[in-house]
Amino acid sequence: MNTIPSVHLADFLSDDPIKKQKFIKEIGNAYENIGFVALKGHFLDDKLVEDLYQEVKNFFDLPLEIKEKYEIPGIGGQRGYVSFGKEAAKGKKEGDLKEFWHFGQYVEDNPALEAEYPANVIVEELPKFNEIGKEAYKMLEKTAKYVLRALALHLGLEETYFDNYIKNGNSILRPIHYPPIQDEPKGAERAAAHGDINLITLLMGAQGKGLQVQNHNGDWIDAMAEPDELMINVGDMLSRHSNNKLKSTIHRVINPPRELWGTSRYSIPFFMHPISDMKLNVLENCIDENNPKQFEDITAGEFLDERLRDLGLKK
Ligand SMILES: O=C(O)CCC(=O)C(=O)O
Ligand SMILES: [Fe+2]
């Protein structure tokens, strides 16, 4: 596969069982091959998308000493600001050429989870940034819920299998700013090759060149979405759970050619995580003679901890 297939969520939400089945088949095939789809028909309207980009730009435009007020020690960068160069891809020593922000779950009716997660960080200078971030978080979470319902059916599970694991899940919305490049990056990239940690990722901002995905042959292919599409990919948690039936594909963000070094890139991934108690143990119906169990039993919380250490975000 050398292109990213495009699917429409309206098919899955349709009353017509043939359309619904078509969506499941298309996304299932895409995830068994390239691991990525571009999705139309998500729940973010144009105004929300526009406001979100504006607020994200406003935030990253703040002076560094203000942004640094919101960099909270001791929480593995899981909420608030993470400054330039802090995160390095697993196995890489050069930090990525990016700064980012994390909005976390807005827990409802669950004091235990509220106590477990770090609190969201509020930017005093930009009240609208906090509001719009929350609204986008909710709409992306809702979109992701339906995508996971389709994948549950594709995997031969109950349609609502994931619902209780993702309700109040440890999901994260991460606006990223890749600033203009000043000096020769010396081995550093905007985002070095990596697989995502979580169940699925919904990415806003893949409209310009930059994101590349590695196919079966090891070739890097450009992954670009239309203006009304989200790029959605499988993360390592879902790959483990499905015994790698669904593929968590390695991807990266390359540095622009020199004549474009002066431009920023903004992208906004939503990393859909379950609650930390979810067992990622390989599903029985994904194991057979030809596909023996490939992964050790582990919970989502344990797996996340391990990976935050690999990224240099947690000590
Ligand atoms: O900026 C992008 O387009 C992709 C970012 C990404 O892959 C990530 O943050 O995991
Ligand atoms: Fe990623």
From TrEMBL:
<dbReference type="GO" id="GO:0016491">
    <property type="term" value="F:oxidoreductase activity"/>
</dbReference>
<dbReference type="InterPro" id="IPR005123">
    <property type="entry name" value="Oxoglu/Fe-dep_dioxygenase_dom"/>
</dbReference>
<dbReference type="InterPro" id="IPR026992">
    <property type="entry name" value="DIOX_N"/>
</dbReference>
<dbReference type="InterPro" id="IPR044861">
    <property type="entry name" value="IPNS-like_FE2OG_OXY"/>
</dbReference>
<keyword id="KW-0408">Iron</keyword>
<protein>
    <submittedName>
        <fullName>Flavonol synthase</fullName>
    </submittedName>
</protein>
<comment type="similarity">
    <text>Belongs to the iron/ascorbate-dependent oxidoreductase family.</text>
</comment>
<dbReference type="InterPro" id="IPR027443">
    <property type="entry name" value="IPNS-like_sf"/>
</dbReference>
<dbReference type="Pfam" id="PF03171">
    <property type="entry name" value="2OG-FeII_Oxy"/>
</dbReference>
<dbReference type="Pfam" id="PF14226">
    <property type="entry name" value="DIOX_N"/>
</dbReference>
<keyword id="KW-0479">Metal-binding</keyword>
<keyword id="KW-0560">Oxidoreductase</keyword>
<feature type="domain" description="Fe2OG dioxygenase">
    <location>
        <begin position="168"/>
        <end position="274"/>
    </location>
</feature>
<dbReference type="GO" id="GO:0046872">
    <property type="term" value="F:metal ion binding"/>
</dbReference>
